[in-house]
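From the thread on structure requests for the teaching lab: each student submitted one protein with a one-line request. Submission from student K.M.:

"Model LPS export ABC transporter permease LptG from Polynucleobacter arcticus, tokens only."
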Amino acid sequence: MKYLFPYIFERYIARQIYGAFGFILFALVALFLFFDILSELGSVKGQYTLPLALLHVLLKAPSRISEIIPIAGLIGSIYVFAMLASQSEFTILRIAGLDVRRGLKTLAKISLPLIIFTLVMSEWLGPYTENLSDQIRMRALGSSYSAQFKTGVWVKDRLRDEAGSGPVRPGVRYVNVGNIAQDNEIQNIRMYEFDDAYRLLSIRSAISGRFDQAGTWTLNDVTETRFKENKQADPLNPVFSAHTFTHPIVSLDSEVTPQILSVLLVSPEKMSILSLGQFISHLRDNKQDAQRHSIAFWKKVIYPFTIFVMLVLALPFAYLKVRSGSVGIKVFGGIMLGMSFQLFNSLFSNVGLLGAWPTLLTALTPPLLYFVLALVGLRWVSKA
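Reply posted by the TA:
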């Protein structure tokens, strides 16, 4: 603590902000989990008992925490600065030499542990417990992952030789998966292979499949129909032949992994930075649109640093006179400010997606705009 905050006033402000942040974060998470438990009670039946439902909801707490951290940081810091102002402590700190520049440096130091905490929650603990929570629920209900569409999950893959292995060749393979079981087993698989001129080469269906550590899908009970064009003297009158084969087991090399399939069932906003990066690379390799996932990727990269923006937004409240409003009004203003940021951030992402704007600019604009707003407000109140 002394190494990060060498000055006494820095340690004092840090303790105050961390204490208020922890209390507000606990209160907000408890409130959201209470509503989650109420909504989950309707699913309690059979082996999915109330204790399992409570465990399912509690395991989602890290994801909730990562979503609420910036707002909790804003409300907590506004409360601390408003209290310091109401008790004239901040005035004393200003007389002792705490100017705007030093205040910003202090907030940067205070935000550093919160940034690390956010990264741990959003990139490691949150996705892990979220997946564990879903597995507990599915195992109790006897269900599996399914797509939002009645036709299942569709994914694009690279084409290989007729046996499904070997080097990549011109063409494309479209894979349709009915559902994904708890242990990464896929069921009701269909594959459509086309050459580089988009002429149908084969249709392959399988009852189930499993991915091994060597990067190969092992399909069970496979029915395959291959189409071949018989070369004729008249090119305007081609003749095609179809041959159907059945195989108990077929091994296929594919770039479609269980991780990619599971990613298709999760919204980009709930994915980790690593998973988003891998999936964006897969989409670009297959010449697919990655705009939405790219915006989510840059938002996830920038998101932890929005905590510093929230703390800077709270700093002008320390310069307001006591007669300018009570602490409760200032905290209410902070809540409205935090909600406006969340709404504007989501709205701007959707607008950027519709307008096909540069992904980094789309993700960076909202926090940058609020940071500029905080600096303008800070300059205005510090000279008042």
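TA comment: The chain has two domains: 8-142+287-382, 153-264. The mean pLDDT is 83.
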